[in-house]
Description:
With about 160 residues, the protein is mostly helical. Helices cover about 70% and strands about 0% of the residues. The protein folds into 2 domains: about 1-30, no CATH class; about 30-155, no CATH class. The longest helix is centred in the first third of the chain and has 20 residues, at about 5-20.
Amino acid sequence: MKMSQKLALILLGAAASALVGTGVIRAADDEVDAATKAKIAQFDKGPATIDVSAYPAGIQKNYAVFREKCTLCHTLARPINSDFALPDEWSRYIKRMMHKPGSMISNTQAKKIYEFLVYDASVRKKALFDEKLAAAAPADKAEAEAKLNELLQAYAQK
């Protein structure tokens, strides 16, 4: 990254922080209702690590990216213990996080985080994954199953 780009990024971050501090831009916590704040607090109190030693090597590498990037803005416990399980839930969450100031999550990193979280949900959160899948509309269910199968096949070959 060029020096001018780095400087622009730093100045942009400082301006965003100043705007949040003055109330021109509301901080993320101000935009969340009390019930959601309580739910997030519960997620934050749960385990903050996952034993990925039995996961495919590529997924283990993606876990490292997940750990590095996601802890820049919130506890790792939050996504680990969240009630997201299906691929589309993770996709929406990651896209939202990518656009938060300071996340600096690239498209490549977002893909790795997504793949880790979808894989992990299909293994560690299997009951929740299956429950949500069973409740999904037939087209959504088929799409989720296809995304998971594609991911499983990709990492089975690695």
